[in-house]
Amino acid sequence: MSRTMTNCNDAPNSNKPETVGRGQFSSRIGFITAAAGCAVGVGNIWSFPIQTAENGGAAFTLVYLCFSFILAYPTLVAELNIGRYRQSNNISAMASLSANPALRCIGAGTAIAGLLTMTLIYSFYSIVGGWFIGFSLAPIASLTGFASAGQWLSGFSSLSTIAVTLLFMGLTTLIVTEGVKNGIERWCNRLMPSLFVLLAVLIVFALTRPGGMEGLSVYLLPDFSRILDDKLLISALGQSFFSMSLGTGCMMVYGSYLNRKVNLPKTAFQVTLVDSSVAFLAGMLIIPCMYAAMHQGVEIFNASGELYSAEKLVFNVLPTLFDQLGITGQFVAAAFFLLLAIAALTSSISMMEPVVAAMVERLSFVRRHACWLLSTLTAAISIVIILHIDTLLGMAVKVATQYMQPMLCFMIAIYGSWVIRQDRLLTELSQGFPDLQNSLFWKIWPWYTRIVCPGLILLLLVHNL
User: Fold this and answer.
1) What is the annotated signal peptide range for this record (predicted)?
2) Per DSSP, what are the bridge partners of residue 307?
3) What angle do CA 153, 346, 293 make, to 5 degrees?
4) pLDDT tens by residue, 212-249
5) Tens digits of per-residue pLDDT, 308-366?
6) First to last CA, the chain
């Protein structure tokens, strides 16, 4: 008999986690690859360079990296720990951390808000992922004599955008229907190494173009006078959470599939390191490419120093640079946008999983049916955004990443450190880390996630509002 999605009183109250019939990652490396794939995506390679270019280059990069380790990493440990502790879907997990009925309902409500936010992110994420697929196929179409098809794929018309968005969603859904081990883990193990190889090759290309080294200096040499800029701080905070897929339940449900023998703090640090490294490397690719394009006469910034069409920056600027390389540029363009498509796909599969897990475990859906129903509903949202893209795309990104995700991360920090009992917290984290109680991590992390993390997040949110 199916359970309702919102009933917070039926959450498991015992200490025994719900594990029956649930998938699990086959190894720690498999989890790291999948979690890094969850974190590495559009946030790193599309959004991060744009935010960097809009907020002073290296100053933004420095603040983003600081937030990644002083706010995102502790929150990531809390979110993964909640998931592994309960080993159930996000709604059941959050509702089960307290015996207090009010806290149960607030926890369940937080999880549901996370799932709704994740659905919104998946809807605009698929649009951008679809553009990546379209722009990776366009050079191939041109090289094989189908120039008109290539122009259509990269033309940003409503019809072509809907088509590539649905293609991207279809690929994502096919992977997620296969489950944790055979779908998510297997494909992340294949896609992530390809991403790193393509990224390294393209960075070398970018730095050898005229103007590339100028872009690198802008990217690496910070203007310290901008570090405390209000817009920069809130953008860096939102970017660190968006990039790491925090607050929306992705990492919590991934944690629920994680073996209890894994050292959680160490593994979370490795995921954070991979994610921030890819973002940093993406900046080393995109920013030099921007300045190389400027060197060729392409206008990037307007008279007031703002980016032209920020959301479509990589699509408007970089193809102009690639076109000047002739046939070679077509191959480079295909490789570049294939890189972006791979990054987007590794994240999008994680975006479906929390909602699918809740539908399967709480509403008794068959996994395949849950996947296709979710994609159908999300596709409808995506089409609405596409038909009003100049207004709704930027609004959806801002609402989800700069408001909802920080607020959800605030709640995760509260539940992961205040609501869950400290003896249970210690017991759970000690699995895979036997010497936890005597470690520096345990001396800092509990009070840090109780006071510093929620305090800083709340301060920045209130200031931004």
Assistant:
1) none
2) 301
3) 50
4) 899 888 888 877 778 888 778 888 887 787 778 787 88
5) 666 666 777 677 777 777 788 788 888 878 877 877 887 788 888 889 989 999 999 99
6) 44
CA nearest 252: which of 363, 457, 95, 375? Answer: 95
Would you tell me how many other CB atoms lie within 10 Å of the CB of residue 52? Answer: 27
Q: Which two tokens stand for residue 19?
A: 């594990």
Contact 227, 63 (CB under 8 A): yes
SS3 labels along the chain: CCCCCCCCCCCCCCCCCCCCCCCCCCCHHHHHHHHHHHHCCHHHHHHHHHHHHHCCCHHHHHHHHHHHHHHHHHHHHHHHHHHHHHCCCHHHHHHCCCCCHHHHHHHHHHHHHHHHHHHHHHHHHHHHHHHHHHHHHHHHHHHCCCHHHHHHHCCCCHHHHHHHHHHHHHHHHHHHCCCHHHHHHHHHHHHHHHHHHHHHHHHHHHHCCCCHHHHHHHHHCCCHHHCCCHHHHHHHHHHHHHHCCCCCCHHHHHHHCCCCCCCHHHHHHHHHHHHHHHHHHHHHHHHHHHHHHHHCCCCCECCCCCECCHHHHHHHCHHHHHHCCCHHHHHHHHHHHHHHHHHHHHHHHHHHHHHHHHHHHHHCCCHHHHHHHHHHHHHHHHHHHHHCHHHHHHHHHHHHHHHHHHHHHHHHHHHHHHHCCHHHHHHHHHCCCCCHHHCHHHHHHHHHHHHHHHHHHHHHHHHHC
User: What is the C-alpha R_g of the chain?
Assistant: 22
Quote the CA–CA distance of 273 and 187 in Å, as a whole number. Answer: 21
Give the number of other Cβ atoms within 10 Å of residue 306's Cβ. Answer: 11
Per-residue pLDDT, 2: 41
- The 10s digit of each residue's pLDDT in 71-111 is 889 988 998 899 888 888 899 999 999 889 999 999 999 99
Pull the structure tokens for residue 237. 């905070």
What values do phi and psi take at 222, rounded to 5? Answer: -80, 150
Which pLDDT tens digit goes with each residue over 391-407? 998 899 888 887 888 88
Q: What domains are defined for the chain? A: 28-464 (1.10.4160.10)
C-alpha 343, offset from chain centre: 10
Of 310 and 277, the structure prediction assigns the larger pLDDT to 277
Cβ neighbours for 385, distance < 8 A, ≥ 6 positions apart: 123, 124, 127, 392, 393, 396
The percent of residues above 70 in pLDDT, for the chain, comes to 83
| Distance, CA of 354 to chain centre | 13
pTM comes to: 0.80
